[in-house]
Amino acid sequence: KxxxxxxxxxxxxxxxxxxxxxxxxxxxxxxxxxQTSKAVLDRYMSLPQGTRVQATYIxxxxxxxxxxxxxxxxxxxxxxxxxxxxxxxxGSSCHQAExxxxxxxxxxxxxxxxxxxxxxxxxxxxxxxxxxxxPTKTNKxxxxxxxxxxxxxxxxxxGIEQEYTFLDQDGHPFGWPKNGFPGPQGPxxxxxxxxxxxxxxxxxxxxxxxxxxxxxxxxxxAEVMPAQWEFQVGPTEGIDMGDDLWVARYIMxxxxxxxxxxxxxxxxxxxxxxxxxGAHCNFSTKAMREVGGMKHxxxxxxxxxxxxxxxxxAYDPNEGKDNERRLTGAHETSSxxxxxxxxxxxxxxxxxxxEVSAQGYGYLEDRRPSSNCDPYSVTMVIVKTTCLGD
Length: 390
What we know:
Shape: globular
Number of strands: 13
Low-confidence stretches: 1-13, 18-33
Number of helices: 10
Largest sheet: 8 strands, mixed
Distance between the termini: 82 Å
Helix content: 25-40%
Oligomer: single chain
Structural class: alpha+beta
Strand content: 15-25%
Radius of gyration: 25 Å
């Protein structure tokens, strides 16, 4: 068509090269438009806002693990929870309502200083309610609060170890070679050094934000799989465990967003010889924490052993399906099929710390909850089983 002596091939190459140049420019242009400058943003965030306040309303969506938020202007700094108005949102866009009847309502339940906007601005944790004033399916807080009120004489304390994994925006673990894998597990846990630790800046920023917000964060560390980390919240009593952990998760997502990194709570983000991610729940009652408390710890473990299946269903948002990939009996986990307990045994369902065994009182660690668990569901079922006999 284009003549002899390779003219056809030459024209084809020319067309291909032109396409690639256009495609590359378009891709770079899109990437450029997707990025923003925090230095430029700071010019505007330093502007005075007068007496009006920005309140970020936060809620759990219909997946039972995703978080959503939007911001409302208040005329003045809220003095107490009762002064915060009920708000609404489109539940059909959050897997919580039909489009024909989509108004879903946010009831404020806990307020925290905002580490992003600072000043008098606040984060507002909310419960979600349907049009008929019933809680949405994934609003586990309402029932959890009722259980904690029934069991308040036991003074239940919790501490949850939230594990998570950093990913690039392409879904590949952050810092991992794009065409291969890092070295085997071993040198990454609690490590230091650029060849072993990925994402520490995000971890440090999150830690400081939680302290600013008044969340009872108690520590953090790099985990066994590279790009995997953990932060601990607690000890807290009753409903505060769920509240603080959900807001700490929100803060983590917001901080990582600023760094352009994805946070995964998948309990087994990488198949193969890599550790999964959990949310080990440390639990005690007043009786367990007092001298002679070991008998109460052992009694609680006995009750837990008789309710293994119901707990597994409560320990991830898909009633155990997510945890099946993690609780295999390998990589410091117990089998999802069996209940076990032991002193200092990280391969058991329930671990009794060695110092607790030695002193005869303290707490137990339930190692079964998955990293994407709902802490309201986890703490609620533990209290129902061990304190209320349900």
